């Protein structure tokens, strides 16, 4: 049913909690797991803003997540991209033919449009496949 699962991660508590759900689904359906983390583009004033603006931090985050899934017997592919998180997540889902995106209810980022429009909400609206939100 879910041949390819995309799990976008950041350093939020919600992403860590969603990892258990990802593990269960990937094992149950024997899915291909792709981990994605997005290095956020600097703001117009040249400031990367938060910790997800550091390629080194994002690379380490992906490495740690891959090791976590490996301990569960799951081989995870990793993708690191730069861009606006919601758009990048949906683009990657389309590129890899994802059957499901699993993400935490609220990650680290809000979109430029304001506090009412989270990355999660934007992904739900733009995704080319079903999105499972883990509260």
Question: What can you see in these coordinates?
Answer:
It is a single chain. The model has no long low-confidence stretch (mean pLDDT 88). Strand 4 (100-104), helix 4 and strand 5 (131-134) form a beta-alpha-beta unit. 40% of the residues lie in helices and 23% in strands. It has a 5-stranded parallel sheet with strand order 3-2-1-4-5, sandwiched between helices. The protein is built from 4 helices and 5 strands, in the order E-H-E-H-E-H-E-H-E. The protein has helices at residues 13-29, 55-71, 85-96, 119-126; strands at residues 4-8, 32-40, 76-83, 100-104, 131-134. Helix 3 (85-96) packs parallel to helix 4. It is an alpha/beta fold.
Q: Largest beta sheet, briefly?
A: 5 strands, parallel
Total beta strand runs: 5
For the CA atoms, what is the radius of gyration?
Answer: 14 Å
Distance between the termini: 22 Å
What is the helix/strand order? Answer: EHEHEHEHE
Characterize this entry briefly:
With 135 residues, the chain is an alpha/beta fold.
Keywords:
5 strands; globular; 135 residues; five-stranded parallel sheet; single chain; alpha/beta; 23% strand
